[in-house]
Amino acid sequence: MSEQPSPKRLVISDVDGTLLDPNKQLTEAARAAVRDLDTAGVGFTFVSARPPRALLPLAQATHLKLPFASFNGATVCSPDLEVLSQKLMPKRDVVRAAEIIADHGLDVWAFVGSEWWVTNLHGPHTDGHRKLLGREPHLMVPMLGICSEAAKIVGVSDDYDAVARCEQALRKSSLHISATRSSNYYVDVTDADANKGHAVRELMRLAGATPETTVTLGDMPTDVLMFREAAESIAMGNASDVVKQAAKAVTTSNRDEGFARAVHEFILKAA
């Protein structure tokens, strides 16, 4: 007699490029898919590189009941932003990581508590982040010192090759950090134990789920760490071939309601 698959009780999704469309909006189909998961008794939450405050509107829009992870897992919060767990980088290591980022010609961002610090007030993507957070960044003065208190730092540039080279340099360093690209223009740096794989383990623990009963969805190399922690993983159609090959299934792109399709065609249909 063949073994029956475990019923799914938890879905953990990446946010940008996965749950949200290319305009970073939550579509009505995605909202309905989250509601359908709830109706079916399947828990839902998300993991993002974004700061907690930037995820509050999404938590509200999806009527989130479970904790979520921000800063790629460095901070886990309740839906009302109570910090449940946090992993900070060693101070010397995070400052050195910031120096490596700057040496590669990238702007440096640092997230300290609820505050956002930058080396360039008018650098690439700062305007988009102003809208996301609803606040102005602080200028790092003196340079990079504030990074020692950060939960996450980011290297930012529209020179995608420079971002990729910076990521490799950070990974080859002996620093106790995790360095991954959350997009072509961001390289995110958190504590070595604070990544999306850690986030999935923590969220499963808090939800009372197991790898066998969990599904993860994502589109970027950072999300491959999520895929490894769950028995079922789904890559978006807009993901690279490398990310798709790391997943158990592939849905359509976030331009074509890939999240909603994955929920209905892979998760709820199987259940």
Query: How much of the residues is beta strand, in percent?
Result: 15-25%
* SS elements, strand count: 14
The total count of helices amounts to 10
Q: Largest sheet, described in full?
A: 6 strands, mixed
Lateral strand order in the biggest sheet: 8-7-6-9-11-10
- Spans of at least 5 consecutive residues whose pLDDT stays below 50 are 1-5
Label the overall shape.
globular
The rounded distance between the terminal residues' Cα atoms is: 19 Å
Radius of gyration: 18 Å
Q: Architecture of the largest domain, according to CATH? A: 3-Layer(aba) Sandwich
Please indicate the count of domains: 2
Mean pLDDT: 93
CATH class wording of the largest domain: Alpha Beta
CATH superfamily of the largest domain: HAD superfamily/HAD-like
User: Class by helix and strand content?
Assistant: alpha/beta
CATH topology of the largest domain: Rossmann fold
Secondary structure topology:
Layout lengths: L9 E5 H5 L8 H12 L3 E5 L4 H10 L6 E3 L4 E3 L5 E4 L4 H13 L3 E6 L2 E4 L7 H8 L4 E2 L12 E5 L3 H13 L4 E7 L2 E6 L4 H12 L6 E5 L2 H7 L4 E4 L5 H6 L2 E2 L7 H11 L3
Parallel strand pairs: 1-2, 1-12, 7-8, 12-13, 13-14
Antiparallel strand pairs: 3-4, 4-5, 6-7, 6-9, 9-11, 10-11
Task: Supply the key terms.
single chain, 271 residues, alpha/beta, Rossmann fold, Hypothetical Protein, Haloacid Dehalogenase-like Hydrolase, Chain: A, domain 2, 2 domains, 6-stranded mixed sheet, 5-stranded parallel sheet, 14 strands, 36% helix, 23% strand
